[in-house]
Design a protein that fits this description.
The chain contains 10 helices and 9 strands. The chain has 282 residues and is of the alpha/beta class. The chain is globular, with a radius of gyration of 17 Å. InterPro entries: ADH_Fe/GldA, ADH_Fe_C, ADH_Fe_CS, Alcohol_dehydrogenase_Fe.
């Protein structure tokens, strides 16, 4: 039985206020590179990072279901900047993009060259992942999913060095998340744990995480959908449920729902959480 989760997790409401302290603790004097999307910048969430580190370079062109062409273009930028630490801020797309760019920063070629398991020659740069949705758990997993638009296929780039070094998980970053995204990302988290618990690679340890995550999600998702801003307890529970789903499914696996959802997402650019919620049996 194998169970591996090397990411250091800092969890709690208001945790973003400790960002500078956390970076200086593990990455003192590191040069930084922020990866996010335009929606996060427009919502003012990126300012919560930039206020700690004014003037750091930012790539904010990550799209839903990040495209291989976007990652390869950003890869050229990150190679010129040569940062020591990549900060990913956003939903699963931004976090997956950050992990992919950390890989390209230390390895030659294009992101499609690294499709599969452990194809990189040098370990990626460390990543500090800050999720702003309650679904993907990319902040604690070893996979980056990038869409190859010419093949219309979602590539999995993964390896033991792809885990973020640090996950800063602050439920208060969900306060401005629109209700439809609370629903779709929360159902993505639900799909993670249902599949982690029911697939053949599940173990005693992954079941512990899956059961606790499932309990948290069931207790909080409907409440969070109805009042994400005002219901602090629901906000914290759905965020924690999403995060601890990561160790469950990345040490077990996902199943048929994710396979179908990724195929549909690559063909029609369907949001991942929406696709999962459609195909998860009720």
């Amino acid at each position: 039985m194998r169970f591996h989760i090397p990411t250091r997790i800092f969890f709690g409401s208001g945790m973003i206020s400790r960002l500078k302290e956390i970076v200086e603790e593990d990455f003192k004097d590191a040069s930084l590179f922020l990866v996010t999307d335009k929606g996060i910048r427009e919502a003012g969430i990126a300012d919560k990072v930039l206020s700690h580190f004014p003037g750091i370079p930012v790539f904010d062109e990550v799209e839903q279901n990040p495209k291989h062409t976007t990652i390869n273009r950003a890869g050229e930028i990150v190679r010129k900047i040569k940062p020591d630490l990549v900060i990913g801020l956003g939903g699963g797309s931004s976090l997956d993009a950050a992990k992919a760019l950390a890989l390209l920063a230390t390895n030659p070629g294009k992101i499609e060259d690294y499709e599969g398991k452990g194809k990189y020659k040098l370990p990626p740069l460390p990543v500090l992942a800050i999720p702003t949705t309650c679904g993907t758990a990319s902040e604690v997993t070893w996979v980056s999913v990038i869409t190859h638009t010419e093949r219309m296929f979602k590539m999995s780039i993964k390896g033991p060095h792809m885990f973020p070094a640090v996950a800063l998980v602050d439920p208060d970053l969900l306060i401005t998340l629109p209700a439809p995204l609370v629903a779709s990302t929360g159902l993505d988290a639900l799909t993670h744990v249902v599949e982690a618990y029911t697939v053949k690679p599940a173990t005693f340890l992954t079941d512990i995480f899956a059961r606790e995550s499932l309990k948290l999600i069931f207790e909080s998702l409907e409440r969070a959908y109805g009042n994400i801003k005002g219901d602090k307890e629901a906000r914290e529970k759905i965020m924690l449920g999403s995060t601890i789903a990561g160790p469950a499914f990345c040490n077990s696996d996902v199943g048929a729902v994710h396979c179908v959802a990724e195929a549909v997402g690559s063909l029609f650019d369907t949001p991942h959480g929406v696709a999962n919620s459609i195909f998860l049996p009720f």
